[in-house]
Every structure is written in structure tokens, then in C-alpha cells.
Amino acid sequence: MPSIFLSHTSIDKPFVEKLARDLKRIGVNVWYDKWEIKTGDSITWKIEEGIRENEYLGIILSPEALNSEWVKSELGGAWVKQMQTKKVVVLPIYYRECQMPFFLIDRKYADFRVDYEQGFNELASIFGIKETQAITQDNWRKFTKNRKVDWKLYKIREFEQLVTALVDRAYDYNWSAWVGGTSNEYSITLYCSVKQENEYIHKHISIKLLGENNAYMASFKKQANPNNIKVSDFDTYIGNSVNACDEYVWRFMDDFNSAFGIPQEKPSYFTERFSRGNEIHEAAKEMIRKFNWYKGDKLY
């Protein structure tokens, strides 16, 4: 398994932390000071140990990094290691515009300056990790036109996260939830009713993941079952993440409950989905294996 020491300056930490998480997702062991240096540790010794024990040193190139004495020392140590082992150790990671050090000018670098995903794929390829392996839960939308990548699996996982987050939110606010079926996939409606004097006030919000950009769009049709809502009714853009939807729905519910009170009727939750392909068959096989001492693949 490849390993890398990330040499950087503190101003670049948000970028470095995201990069470290993404590298770990694709199976790279990452030495990142925030994770490795604990209270009471010798910073110098931990850094030396990290450079010595990791296969690569990735230097995050930015103007501040090249003026940092810590980064210069780490780079110097890695360069000595490279000369001694006669193997490529230093990996330039071009994050922000800066004057490239002379001894790195002829080196191939991973370019993150304009496009994070492009730079990440370039870096992943150095570790022998194919583009198909570089897809993550955060970047799957970048791969929707790539036939080599099973990006739909990540889309399904994200929608599962969305349903879980919004149903939990509905539960907290005493709203009902209904997830769309095959006639309106990747949709969910959250709704409630509050009695005011002699009438009921109904409130609905439906969200659907749609379009070439796989964006989350909202509809406010008074319809509890999302299967009865037209795609064209989803005309309000929310965002491209679960967090964006969760915050939008939270504000929507909170504003309604603050104005009209907490719904008193018992909510309902319809969250089941239909199987895709041979999922039921595969699930049955997995259940049989779970309660069987035989773990081979020849009997089932």
C-alpha cells in the first residue's frame, strides 16, 4: 500500500486535510501532522520519522510553503532520502501559483491549481491507482460521463444519506415522509398538517435529484406522494449536496412550526424502495451464507 508524507504550511491546511481524506479513501496511507503529532510529542522527531517511514513526500506548492522553514527542512530531508535510495521520493503537488524551485522544474507535478479532480487523478496515477479507483463519495458527479466508472453506486449511496438525514429531520419536527418509487426515482416528499380553528393548514416540500448535473431541485406542490409529482414541477434549485438539502429543509420546517405550531397528528414514513436487477436474489444468497458454516461459492 503506497504511503505519503504531506509537507505543507498552515495556511494551506483546509486543502491538505481534504486531500488527506480523499487519499485515504482510495487506499493511500497518509502522514498528516494534525493526525500524527499528539500533545507532548517531539515535533522534530515525529516529522523525521514520518519522512523516513513513508514512501513519498508530497510537497504542497504555494508561495507561503516555499517561504516556510519547516517545509524547506522537510523537503531537504526527503531530497537526501531520494539521492540515497535513487528512487523518486518527492512529489510536487501544485496547489497555488508560485515560483517552482529549480530542482523541481523538470519533475512531473499533480496540478490542482484549476481543477481539484484533475489534480487528484494525476496524483492517484502516480500510486498506480486507476481513474476508476479515484472516484469518491464527494466527487462522483465528475464521473457521470465516464463509462469505466460505476458512478451510479455513489449516487444511490448519496440518496440513501439524503433520505436518512431528511427522515430524521422529519421525525424531530413531527412531519411525515414519503420516498418516491420507480415512477419518480430519487425523490422524497416531507409534509404535515396543522389544525387552525376550523381548517387544516397543509405544508409540503418535495426534493428530487435530477438533471445532467445531478442537482437537488424542490417542488412545493400539495401532494404527499412524490410519485404523483411531475419532473417539471421541481423548479427550485437547492444545491448539490446532502448538507445543502438538510439545511434547506430544516429552515423550511422550522419556519412553519414556529408560525403554526408543532403538527399533532401521528406522522407516517414510507421509505421502502423497489429492488434493482437481481438485488433480491443476491440478498437471499447473502442471508443463506450468513447462517451457514460453509463460506465458499460453489454451493450457492
From TrEMBL:
This is TIR domain-containing protein. One of its GO terms (biological process) is signal transduction. Gene3D superfamilies: Toll/interleukin-1 receptor homology (TIR) domain. PROSITE patterns: TIR. InterPro entries: TIR_dom, Toll_tir_struct_dom_sf. It holds the Pfam family TIR_2. It comes from the Bacteria.
